[in-house]
Amino acid sequence: MYRIGVLGAGTWGIALARMLAVTGCDVTVWSAVESELEILSEKHIHPNLKNCVIPESIEFTNSLEKACRDKDIILFAVASVYVRSTAKRAAGFISDGQIIVDVAKGIEADTLLTMSQVIEEEVRADNKHNHVKVVVLSGPTHAEEVALDLPTTIVSACEDADSAGFVQDVFMNTCMRVYTNSDKIGVELCGALKNIIAIAAGISDGLGYGDNAKAAIITRGIAEMSRLGNAMGGSYQTFAGLAGLGDLIVTATSKHSRNNRAGYLIGSGLSPQKAVEKVGMVVEGINALHAAVALASRYDIEMPIVFAVDAVVNKNASALETVNQLMTREKKNEYQ
Question: Comparing C-alpha atoms, which of 60, 54, 43 is closest to residue 15?
């Protein structure tokens, strides 16, 4: 029986905690929100996961020490903006050699570090945790479907093949098929950037455009993502795989997608702030915009869709006028 500590009680953390508990793991879930813990432990439901019954075997706690001590895996499932502060608080309870799995998707705005890099920086700050391994778990995996045991595939990414393989063994079951990948930077960039492209697809829907426009956004979006990823050391194959194209398709088209929903509301006329409020949960694509624009500038990569979303979300640009500007850009070869 594997012992798993899950940090974060949002939909993704709970969906994975439930799956792991059902497959026989000893699961402890930590949250800093007392009201959240009360609902989960007393009613065994999550308000944003319909028809999902949470096993009574899962222990819920507000103690980071209890969630981190003596665990085979510590799973970081907090929102990207809380990854650093959570890692800093948890570091004292994490043993050297610990395997940490990160499922948060984003890039830190100030440092432009990926979430695994943020975790490593905080946990290794005392120079006593140099053997900690951080594995990234990412792919086309809406929590709403994982929580109902619907078939799902995902990628376990780490430069250390043994660690990636161990996570593959722990998470793989009849409902979730796990593939390994050594391209951690590529997988993480996919997870962060696809949310921005999904916002663009939602804006397109909100403006009343059709399937042609959405297909173009997805296709040209993956081209932008892979150009930046390759410049940063990622593999083109990763962006054409589950963590890239696979996750982008589901995030840009699914009814479960917060990013797509936020984009739709913006395209329909709501302000970005009102759109996020109406979605009612974290919209990671908006959080990732600053870093994506900064990285594109740093590596001199053309990313017109990303910059267009940034203009609409952060610079009060008209969505309709921004689409016109995208459509009338100078002529290009498709592979430029």
Answer: 54
